[in-house]
Prior knowledge:
By secondary structure, this protein is mostly helical. It has one domain. It is 70% helix and 0% strand. Helix 3 packs antiparallel against helix 4 (88-97). The N and C termini lie far apart (46 Å). The model has no long low-confidence stretch (mean pLDDT 92).
Amino acid sequence: MNIRLQLLTVFGLGHMRIASGTWGSMPAVGLALGLVFVLGRDDLSTFEHVTISVCVALVGLLFSVACVKFGKEGEQAFGRKDPGQIVADEMAGQSVALLALPWRALNDPQDWYWNLTLAATAFLAFRILDIIKPPPAYKIQKLKGGWGVLADDLVAGFYALIIVQIVGRLVMPGVGWF
């Protein structure tokens, strides 16, 4: 398989038979958590928070460009509009949902729970919104070629980002185990 189709399928995750979009969203979450693990050993300064967001954004941008540039080719290769095998759009949308989150340094076990809960909230919010496609996501997916593959996921990612920001900054701090 050529590199363009590898990017569109997020290196084969799009070929998972059940819930390929869910599988395609997972690497972005893993990347964010991995960066928190590497950078958050002692403290998470503003620089480290920005570094996490920039890395996640760059990955989202890479897969967004792949969708736009190669989406039509992917639709032709898989024989339909926005085929399930193309999950680069989920990777891009999930990346949006993970931007600028209030990650915590890993100083004690509660910080681990916080970060995992934050990541799970971002993941679930994005997947639910990607599936239900609230306006204008449903209509915007009718765009031609790669933009039609990508745009609805970016909208879902933006909506999920708003939800996760509210949960992470307003709801979770008041929860007893945090």
